[in-house]
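Email to the structure team, subject: Hydroxymethylglutaryl-CoA synthase model.

Hi all, the expression group asked for a predicted structure before they design truncation constructs. Nothing fancy, just the tokens so they can compare against earlier work. One-line instruction: predict Hydroxymethylglutaryl-CoA synthase, return tokens.
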Amino acid sequence: MTDVGIDAIEIWTGKLKLDLPNTFAPAKGEDPEKYTKGLGLNASSFPDTYEDIVTMGANAAHRLMEHEGLTPEDIGRIDVATESSFDNSKPVSTYIAGCLERVYEGKFSHANKGERKFACLAGTQSIDDAYNWIKSGRNRGRSALVIATDTALYARNDPGEATQGAGAVAMLISEDPDLVSLSTEQGYGSADETDFLKPNQQFPSVDGKRSVQVYLARMREALEDFEGVAGRTHTDDFAYIPFHTPFPGMVRKAALFGYRHMIRDTSMEDDLAGEIGRQPREEAFDSEGDFEEALREYMDGLKRTDAYQEWYARVVDPTLTISREVGNWYTGSVHLARASALKTAFEEGRELAGERLLVGSYGSGAQAEIHAETVQPGWEEKIADLTIDEGIERRYDLDYDEYERVHDVHNHDIESDGDGEIEEFTAPESEFVFDGWGRM
Ligand code: HMG
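Reply from the structure team: attached below.
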């Protein structure tokens, strides 16, 4: 059976930067370490006034097509994953294809286009759609272009405001991919939840504390479901574990739970028993409260063990490098985590071909999906092409007043001047920019 997976990737960050410890924290009267240590974030990428999900997605896709030497003929479908769509009828992929058709000769008239929505999970679901399309033999030798693009904005003074972000990840899904192949096995954890939702509204209504619990519960179910088909997972099975990263502190929590799950009833649990005891078993407790207290104590101990800290530093922390600087990109987030890990391995000169990743995607509403990936022999060349570091470095550093003005420009509930003109920020040439409706 032919391998199918991600052949190439391109990452486009919003052009502005909101510095959390130096700009956001003083304005909010908060301790900077709440953001850098608590949430694990240094900054977020913010969309400039001439940027939106279409421009960022089109710029990422254009760059991907350029360095892969692709023409529209090579692409049989364009799937956009987003939870920031502005059109209830036309999929965002049609807008993006329209942009690309201004640059490339030939049209995407043969390409199937769509838009996928399940909060942050939709990027992975679009990859799954492409995978199934190729595996079924309907692709006629063509690849799929998957673009995860979002402006992850929250209302001002919402606790989520510190976790905002904006950017797009474009991925080419092909047979015999150069970057990673995807496992047939997948696991799901899904339930109707209301902790994060946007019913006919731009900014989400969020119960932040509950959303953390829902994320952990759905991820646990997905891991168990994955193990039901792929067999038990162990801490040494995977070179990296990229997870959806709304903020690195969230992944820190998920990793500890994942580690505990993986060492349960293994020699690793035996080895640690002298130091922190054995994991509490629910059935041994009379009340749920007593079990939870015992579990909390065990987890506190586990977190401090050398074994856990070494594993976390090696397998999880490298997935968070990009996120720390750009915040939550919703549909793109887990794909940033994968790229971040592979980039670290590349920079360390590590040989990774044949090694496996355990990828955990998540979308509020809520659903988690876990699958495995195998790194392919061509991975280094593809990762060497990434320009995300330059993009992060080049961002304009907003002061707090500028941040509020730009946030207002992106707020659909605030009336614009009415002439469709954008504010004074200078849009660069040779990029797709938004300059008002009807004149994209
Ligand atoms: P908050 O309530 O303002 O923050 O916002 P907090 O008081 O919980 O503090 C955060 C952490 O910082 C805590 O660490 C504090 O202890 C620590 P923890 O106890 O959790 O490990 N802290 C400090 N550390 C060091 N020095 C200090 C200090 N002060 C505090 N001085 C909240 C947190 C998550 C509620 C907020 O960011 C939020 O609402 N975010 C949006 C929702 C979200 O991201 N949820 C994550 C799971 S849901 C998800 O991932 C889906 C999503 O991507 C959407 C989608 O799928 O479409 C969001």
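The chain is about 40% helix and 20% strand. The CA atoms of residues 116 and 231 lie 30 Å apart. Ping us if the truncation boundaries need rechecking.
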